[in-house]
Amino acid sequence: MSESDSRTVEATRRRLSGKQADTVDKLTRSALEVLSREGFAGMTIRMVAANAKVGTATAYTYFSSKEHLVAEIFWRRLRAQPSPVSEDPDATVRVIAELRSIALLVADEPELSGAVTSALLGRDPDVEHLRSRIGLEIRTRLAHALSGNPDADILKSLELLYAGALVHAGMGYESYSDIADRIERSAMLILK
């Protein structure tokens, strides 16, 4: 079984065969290289395809826009990162571990972190689909950390806290590392 076969072989637009999954993997790796050189504003699907040695038409088969491609990268990272498993009896400790883990997902990659914020705000239907999947994953993780039947208002407040922090960091007001600390302090206020 190849490396790509062991991962989820589903992209935003359709299920993928092994070869198709390899192509998508090449494109996502290539996008990170192009992004680090050109920044999000300078990156194009054409550049990513050329860097991956894939035809531009092939790249557009999988990704409708550069926003879609970057959203897919974030989605894959989120799904690949295990939820921090905490047996701590205090839900606040569990929630903070979860929020910190998600907030730091792209903290060490400034070009990617800014691109993720821009991409997830896009109106491309494929981005909207991924944004929904990402939001559901985050909600599921937070609900699990809260355990039992969490208060809907608290859960929504924590989701808004994370989303607002992502935008705040993406606009360059604070680093993602600083945002992780701010999220922790804010979550403690919500969970008191």
Helix/strand structural class: mainly alpha
* Helicity, as a percent range: over 70%
Main beta sheet, described?
A: none
Rounded mean pLDDT is: 88
What is the CA-CA span between the terminal residues?
Answer: 48 Å
Uncertain spans: 1-9
| Overall geometry | elongated
User: What's the alpha carbon Rg, rounded to whole Å?
Assistant: 17 Å
State the helix count: 10
Order of helices and strands: HHHHHHHHHH
> What amount of the residues lies in strands?
under 5%
Q: How many beta strands in the DSSP annotation?
A: 0
What's the short story on this structure?
Helix content is 73%, strand content 0%. The chain has ten helices and no strands.
Outline the fold blueprint.
Elements: H1 3-6, H2 18-42, H3 45-52, H4 56-62, H5 66-80, H6 91-103, H7 110-120, H8 125-146, H9 152-170, H10 176-191
Helix pairs in contact: 2-3, 2-5, 2-7, 3-4, 5-7, 5-8, 6-8, 6-10, 7-9, 8-9, 9-10
Description of the molecule:
The chain is mostly helical. It has ten helices and no strands. The chain has helices spanning 3-6, 18-42, 45-52, 56-62, 66-80, 91-103, 110-120, 125-146, 152-170, 176-191. The longest helix is centred in the N-terminal third of the chain and has 25 residues, at 18-42. The chain is elongated, with a radius of gyration of 17 Å. Residues 1-9 have low confidence and may be disordered.
Provide key terms for this protein.
10 helices, mainly alpha, about 190 residues, about 0% strand, about 75% helix, disordered N terminus, single chain
